[in-house]
Amino acid sequence: MTVTFLGEDAGGRTAENNLGTRTYTRVFKLKADSKNDGAYTVGSNASLPTIGSTHPDDASAWCRRLRVENTDPFAGWTVTAEYSSELELATNPTLQPAEITWDSEQFQKPVLFDNTGDAVCNSAGGLFDPPAMMDDSRRVVTVQKNLSAVPVWILDYQDAVNSDQFTVDGVVIAVGTAKMQRVSVGVQETRNGVTFRPVTFTIHLQRDGWAMELLDSGFMIKDPGDSTKRVAAYIDDGTEPTTAAMLDGSGGILANPSPATAVFLSFDVYKTRTFSSLPLS
User: Fold this and answer.
1) Is pLDDT of 237 > 70?
2) How do residues 195-234 score in pLDDT, each as one tens digit?
3) What percent of the chain has a predicted confidence (pLDDT) above 90?
4) pLDDT tens digit sequence for 87-133
5) Are residues 97 and 170 in contact, defined by beta-carbon separation less than 8 angstroms?
């Protein structure tokens, strides 16, 4: 059983430019010498374009589809190759550039600071109870990349924050401002004989970072006579506070608390990992 490649049909060439997206078709003729030669055998002929190969006249247009038709049963066949410049492809799917999109998501968080960085407190320097809530918008970067297998880092990067400066889609991301939010792995696929898994991961960006900022406050303070012990906090008139008292960052009562003098403690609650090593391109 032999399939003979007869060449390209010059009259089958078409082209179109639709708002900057260029598409092309090319038609090829082949001949089979057996009724047992089917569409798969014909479409797999080594002289035909492969998915991800570039157009001979436009290196920025890639073959996206091959359509095989039996035109003269059983011997005559045509194969139509369709090209597009819309999305860069590669004959090896694991070498295909990552697809990156940007979005935003809206959350809510307690109001701790005003836009100057001062604490949000009542006129006596106390916390609002319950605290007011505010919008917390996050930029969301979604990266889709074909990988040869399920990535080994999929568990190690759970809720991880970047320990390094890295670049995604041409944008430089500062240390501590990105967090791995979600990872999904698609079913195994095969293209041009290469198996791969589409992997999609979502990174949330916070302009001010992911450290947890908490107001230093409580009902207990360090014992002035023995810092290894704690005693009840007392306010200026010698009475115990009915709500948590504002502390000074060293375990004592904050004198004359105000929004400008309130002390916040910063905690790094997420583990850190290098993001520059991720498949971002």
Assistant:
1) no
2) 999 999 999 999 999 999 888 988 888 988 888 888 888 7
3) 73
4) 999 999 999 999 999 999 999 988 888 888 888 887 776 778 788 89
5) no
Give the total residue count for the chain: 281
Q: Domain residues of the chain, as ranges?
A: 3-87, 99-212
Q: Are strands 272-273 and 161-162 parallel, antiparallel or unpaired?
A: parallel
